[in-house]
Amino acid sequence: MKKNIFFLIFLMLFVVLLSGCKKSEMSDLESIKANDKVVFGVKNDTRPFGFEENGELKGIDIDIAKYIAKSLLGDEKKAEFVIVDSSNRLLILSSGKADMVIATMSITPQREAVIDFSTPYYIAGQTALVPVKSDIKTISDLNNKKVIVVFGSTAEKNLRVVAPMAHVMGAKTYPVAFEMLKSGQADAIVSDDTILTSYADNGSFRMLSKKFTREPYAIGFRKTDYSKSLQNRVNGILEEMRKTGKITEIKRKYSSNQ
After folding, report:
1. pTM for this one?
2. Is the pLDDT of residue 38 over 80?
3. Residue ranges, CATH 3.40.190.10, the chain
4. Disulfide check for 152: which of 40, 81, 87, 129 has CB 3.0–4.6 Å away?
């Protein structure tokens, strides 16, 4: 937890320095149009949001990113992708390696201190994944159990509130976390229900029925005046996608592909 706090402090200082060093007067939106491409930070190991299949990136986040690229530049093929994980996505964004990040990232006050967010495009909630035969039935049963969280996610902070006696273990990615659970190194994984669902589908694991948080997923932008026009434009695109049912269509596309 202390590691995450120090990282956020470092990132806040980095953002302040970066915002004062930008040489171009061009906004992020103008730069995207001038470069004729838009770079998204996405995950490639988190079904159903961002994953690789036959060498191709797919998922809810990927399809939303492509729609945004088409709306901004007229062609979804002008979307380019940089792979991120929960622990580095803020740094990838703030360092300028991506124009925006869409990577199962929920809005939190801590993150809002260092980046800006779009309006939410998905609402998740956190719960636990356990072996089918586990005696863990409720969130409070996680106390005195070994529980895995993914570095950089909000799960650690939330877990310490609902199960303060849990023995917290960290993993860099969700596949690593699942392998740790499968091998018996831990008793449970705590994360967003939308992410854990894919791992519960094999019949050997189950999710607890009750969610203990509300996690609004949103797109992240650099916290500078140069990004405001891009943020406003993307919010308009997301609103259009909600009104036309496009976001619902994308969610349904992957609901059976987890």
Report:
1. 0.88
2. yes
3. 26-123+216-255, 126-213
4. 87
